[in-house]
C-alpha cells in the first residue's frame, strides 16, 4: 500500500471576473434595475445594445499545481494573499471543483477553513460534535468514545447545550478544531482560522497538530501567515506564488525564499507625505540600511557592522522622544528589541523639525539569514508609540566560513539566532604522567 495520502496533479482553478462598463456606477438604484429590465426586453427584439454587456476576464486562481504528501507528514503552505492557498484547500476539502487536473485523497478529510465550517448554527455544541462525526463516517459509539476528550480540549463544557450561533468566534474555533483533530480523520486541513483564538489556545492547537502527524501517523496541511508557527510544526513547506507552487522544500528553505521574494530590494524606504493630514505628532520620512562607510547595501557578512538610519519629522513642540528598533529572522523570531537609552537628545524636549536616528548592529552579532527591521518613535513616560512600522527594511547576513566568525572553520549547519564571538578560557589542570 502506498504511503501517499494526497496526490495533486496539474491542478487548475479558473474564475471569470466581471468588469463594469466604463462610466457605470457601482451604486444601483431600484429605478436602474427596472430600466435595465425594460432595456433587455427591447434588446431581445431589436438585437441592439450587445456592446453594452459586462466584459469578463479569465482569472486562474490555481495553475499547474502538482505535489504529493505522505502519511504522517505535516506540511505547511505559505504565500502572500491571493497566492491560491485557500483555493487549494477548498478543492482538497471538496468544497470547490477544480477546472483542470485531478486530486487523489486516501482517507477521510476533516477541514477547518473558516469560523463555523461544518457546523449547523441552530444545533448545540453537543449535537454538532455528533453531526461532524457522522459526516466523517464514524459510528455513534466511536464519537461517544472521543466526546469527553473533545469537550475537555475545547474548554466549552458550560456551553455544550447552547446553540453554536450564540458562541463567540473564539468558542466556535475551539470546538471546531477539537472536533476536527480528535475524530481521527486520516487527513487534517487547517487554514488561518486559528488566528481567531487566543495565544494559549493557538499554542495548544499547534501542539495537537504536531502530535496528530508525528504520534498518530495522520497527515496535516496547515496554511498560516505566522512563519514561526509553520517553522515549529512543519518539516516541509509549500511556498505558493501567483497560483502556482514556487517551491516545495524543507521549511527553512521555503521560508527563506518566501521572505526574500516578498521583501526584495528593501534596503531603503521612503514614505509619502499623504498621511500628514492625520494630525500625527511624528511621521517617518526615509529609512536605509548601510555599512560603516554609509554605503547602502542588502548583503552583509557576519563580520561587518550594520547601520540602520531613519529620518522622521516631529510636528509638535516640547515632546520628549526616544527610538525603537526590532529585528526578526526568517522564521519570524524576534531576535532583539532595542530602545535608545544612551543618546543625549532622548532627554531633551524637541522643537518641530526633521531628525535622523541611527542604530548600529555590531559585527559578529547576527547569525546568517534574512533579517527584517521594524522601527518606532515613542514617548517612554507615559508610554506612547507615535510612529511604528514593521518590515520596513530587509537585509541578508552571510557567513563566508573564513574562520573569522563564531563558527570558526566548521562548515555544517550552525544553528542559533545570534553569533557573537565569546571569550573562552582554557587552562591545563593536570599534566599527563
TrEMBL record:
InterPro entries: AAA+_ATPase, ABC_transporter-like_ATP-bd, ABC_transpr_TagH-like, Bact_Polysacc_Export_ATP-bd, P-loop_NTPase. GO terms for molecular function: ATP binding. Pfam families: ABC_tran (PF00005). Keywords: ATP-binding, Nucleotide-binding, Transport. It comes from the Bacteria. The keyword rRNA-binding does not apply. Gene3D superfamilies: P-loop containing nucleotide triphosphate hydrolases (3.40.50.300). Residues 28-267 form the ABC transporter domain. PANTHER family: TEICHOIC ACIDS EXPORT ATP-BINDING PROTEIN TAGH (PTHR46743). Belongs to the ABC transporter superfamily. This is ATP-binding cassette domain-containing protein. It comes from Synechocystis salina LEGE 00031.
